[in-house]
């Protein structure tokens, strides 16, 4: 069970959250409100999520100002909050306790008997969502924090009365090392976030350090199909005889092995899953793609470890309808379906387009892609072009800079010029017109990227109409 509210209140006091409109910080705010803490927060923009926090009793501000801190005892900040922000500078001046978002989340985890942390370069949001959905559907009343809003859960974070806490563990800035998990899922390990880590070796070492956090008899669950995750499982088996290591995947050596993956006529996706006891079942999902069968296999491993009845767990997974911005269906107009996906790494883009190809069937696939970060584009522009070549046509937007300054010579043309199907760099309005002109009945249009490309879905549907 979780800490009592009075214990957390005694530790943190009144909490002010900076960047509270972000999905990660808003999750911490919701959990602290569930505990009954006095919560305030600020964001630069008046986002829809702020309305929900206000309705829950949080004191929310738009625009940073030192006065917004009020009489806060503890400040929780997102990764983008830096010196020079007036609220941050005021918190330092007052000597307030300042916690990174991950440290604030860790505080809400304390007291739970089983903390499940789900990490990986890709797939962690959907795998976290599947795991929390499975446990909640069965009735175990888990607490959870996910990096997206989940329709089937009704929110991105919730304090449940059960013993499990399921959390997405973000590796982008190594903040996942602030958690103390009992169970870890690693979906994959690839070079990414090199603006923080510097080298691919440093990324892989961070996941080793993360796995080392497991206590005696802790459980590490790794994808056998991914070289990085499989190597992590191998290393930890050699380094820690006191923990349990399991693998899952389509590989023959996986402990929980998938096979016979297929799309059914009614639009579902199935595979056979079997494990060492000789038992096998059918894994049946409503969300598309082989990658989601893998994500569900990881979630099932948590359910089996928790002692759930296997078929009951499988039935719960089959009812999962997806996470926001993970192959999210935005609508249909003129017999053209429009989907949105958060994919912003070449492996994610390839998985999203592979799923799109399956869903499109005999139709064509048109993509609006927005690169995210200059550093990531510089590192992976060739791989992005290769992945995007799975489409029939591609419109590439300018790079979404997020936290970065431009890098000389790094632009979207690096990607577009190497794509093996018709592709060009376009402004957002021109990209909408381009894909609408290309699309015919039965085709699919996908908007892909971690930036504001997601806003184009409604524009595309309106133009199609």
Description:
- By secondary structure, this protein is α/β, with parallel strands linked by helices.
- It contains 16 helices and 21 strands.
- The strands form 3 sheets. It has a 10-stranded mixed β-sheet with strand order 8-7-9-6-10-11-12-13-14-15, sandwiched between helices. A 6-stranded mixed β-sheet has the order 16-17-21-18-19-20, with helices on both faces. A 5-stranded parallel β-sheet has the order 3-2-1-4-5, sandwiched between helices.
- It is globular, with a radius of gyration of 22 Å.
- The relative contact order is 0.09.
- The mean pLDDT is 91.
Helix content: 25-40%
- Could you tell me the strand content as a percent range? 15-25%
* Number of strand elements: 21
Which strand order do you get reading across the main beta sheet?
8-7-9-6-10-11-12-13-14-15
Considering the protein shown, what is the CATH homologous superfamily of the largest domain?
Answer: Mur-like, catalytic domain
Number of domains: 3
CATH topology of the largest domain: UDP-N-acetylmuramoyl-L-alanine:D-glutamate ligase
Summarize the structure.
By secondary structure, the chain is of the alpha/beta class.
